[in-house]
Specification:
heterodimer; A: alpha+beta; 4-stranded antiparallel sheet; 4 helices; B: alpha+beta; 5-stranded mixed sheet; 24% helix
Chain lengths: 160, 86
């Protein structure tokens, strides 16, 4: 089985990663992927370049924990998370989340669950270069709200 | 105990981390909140960045913990600004 979680400076080839994830498994009927990329404009400023920093050791552990949680919650076969670090430019790929399952519903949900939790729990930080200087990106409350949606359904589930 | 500063906090403090002596605190009583209070008492950027209400999260040995979590000699205590990956 391929490593479920990877942190790397180099780019990734989505098609090759999906082929490795599916690994010829004929039980798979759905593959959902999310690819995050660098926008040229963020919070009204032009971004010329950004640097992604992380906390080695914790990052891998946090991502693996999120994948384990997703596998426990959704009926999926496998999941892959690749996150790049280091210098990145607009249009570059930043992150890949890919999930395989028998049917699309669980794959869509699990993919979204993983990226939502990644955005609020995995120790990555973006520093943007703009014409006005470098700045650390602020966390978004909409990201917390995205995760709150999952914890809300969790408590509904446990009550049921 | 090793303290690690990340991203914005590393830049604000001008260092990626330091060894903190336990200052005679007994192993069983020291918490994350005690460490944050000790750092903030230095004043300056430490007081500003670690003021109540600033969104700083703490990981002990790579796991996010609450302020009342216990810390022991040999632990790695990391101070994390709000994360912005993905």
């Amino acid at each position: 089985m391929p490593m479920a979680v990877r942190i790397q400076t180099s780019d990734f080839d989505v098609e090759r990663e999906l082929a490795a994830l599916r690994d010829g498994d004929a039980r798979v009927g759905a593959v959902v992927t999310f690819v995050g990329t660098v926008r040229e404009v963020n919070d009204d400023a032009r971004v010329t370049q950004m640097t992604l920093e992380h906390y080695p050791g914790m990052t891998e552990q946090a991502l693996e924990g999120i994948v384990v949680k997703a596998k426990g919650r959704f009926d999926i076969y496998d999941a892959l998370v690749i996150h790049r670090v280091g210098p990145l430019a607009p249009t570059d790929q930043i992150v890949l989340v890919a999930v395989t399952s028998a049917h699309r519903g669980e794959a869509f949900d699990a993919c979204r669950f993983i990226i939502d939790y990644l955005k609020t729990e995995a120790p990555f930080w973006k520093k943007e270069e703009t014409p006005e200087g470098a700045r650390w990106v602020d966390a978004r409350t909409s990201d917390d709200e995205a995760v709150a949606r999952w914890t809300a359904t969790e408590s509904t589930r446990s009550k049921a | 105990m090793q303290v690690v500063y990340l991203a914005r906090l590393r830049e604000a403090f001008g260092t990626s981390g330091e060894r903190l002596p336990l200052h005679g605190a007994t192993e069983d009583t020291l918490t994350v909140a005690d460490i944050l209070a000790a750092l903030a008492s230095r004043g300056g950027v430490y007081a500003t960045e670690l003021a109540a209400g600033r969104a700083v999260r703490v990981a002990v040995n790579h796991a996010l913990v609450a302020r009342d979590a216990r810390v022991h000699a040999g632990d790695e205590v990391a101070l994390l600004p709000p994360v912005t990956g993905g």
